[in-house]
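Input record (Table S2, row 339):
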Amino acid sequence: MNGRSQFVPTEGRVVALCGGVGGAKLAVGLQHVLGERLTVVVNVADDFEHLGLHISPDLDTVLYTLAGLSDPQRGWGRSDETWNFMDALKQIGGETWFLLGDRDMAMHVERTRRRLSGESLTAICIDIARQLGIRSAVLPVTNDKLSTMVDSTEGELEFQRYFVGRRCEPVVKQIRFSGAQDACLSEEVVASLDAEDLHLIIICPSNPYLSVDPILAVPGMAEKLRATSVPVVAISPIIGGQAIKGPTRKIMDELGLEPSNAEISRHYAGLLDGLVIDITDAAGAGDLGVDVHPVPTLMTDLQSKITLAEHALAFGDSLRATHKRRIRPLRSEAHHDKT
Ligand code: GDP
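Output record (guanosine-5'-diphosphate complex):
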């Protein structure tokens, strides 16, 4: 559908923290409602160098999704993709464990060329988003190198080796973000969070451990969420004790965490004012320590993405109306270390 949003958010800008596929689904709904008033701040700790190219999986998922170019089945990569490059690479004995479609290759080659000529990841991303006709701002959280490292039963694995190469099979013991201490939020991200007309911050229903935590690990980000005067609302990626896709549930089990909204709320403790949970989880939710908004959160088509975006925005509005300046407890230490 190309439906118009019925919900007219009051005013102001919205910043959404986002990983890949799950987060990008909500970003589409938010873009539909907010257009240029939305800034999507994207995880880059999945980025890696492969075949000499700079690959940014989450950024590309968000860019392709917001541009209407993503493959609806896979969730990542471009629709109408062909795989001649991979076939030819295989024929000559190249590395084929990470799939790069022919159309997708243009993104990696061009981004790598521009980076080598000295442009920042942010500048490249802003320009490519413009070229693709994306109305919202898409910003990598940092221009610096940030790498998710998964300590597992098979030793420490670089993220894509764990995620794609080993299909998330090794048991996760600990997750760390190499480079985080020395990374800086980009100027553009800081400006989006400090904007006078900022209205709401949303944490998308992305993997909290692999997609949102690396964003929060960049010095200054968690502090900004704690100190902001606008509501911070997360959408739970867990429905009925399960993740919709990907290893969120498996990782929670392996880290000894209960796959529940209570655990998601605890994970973001000190950062959140409200948690959007699925309507089917409302009855057993109990006290989650933050305001809770139960609505249907499964996004299957454009309309459900728009509807969830509208719910999240309306929830944010209601929190703005009812909340005085919040007093936030400190976020408890993340329980990533299972050792
Ligand atoms: P990835 O980079 O592809 O792993 O994507 P993300 O980190 O953005 O998202 C993965 C998470 O999104 C998983 O925990 C899923 O449960 C969650 N997710 C995916 N689709 C939906 C949905 O329609 N609704 C909700 N609530 N969560 C979803």
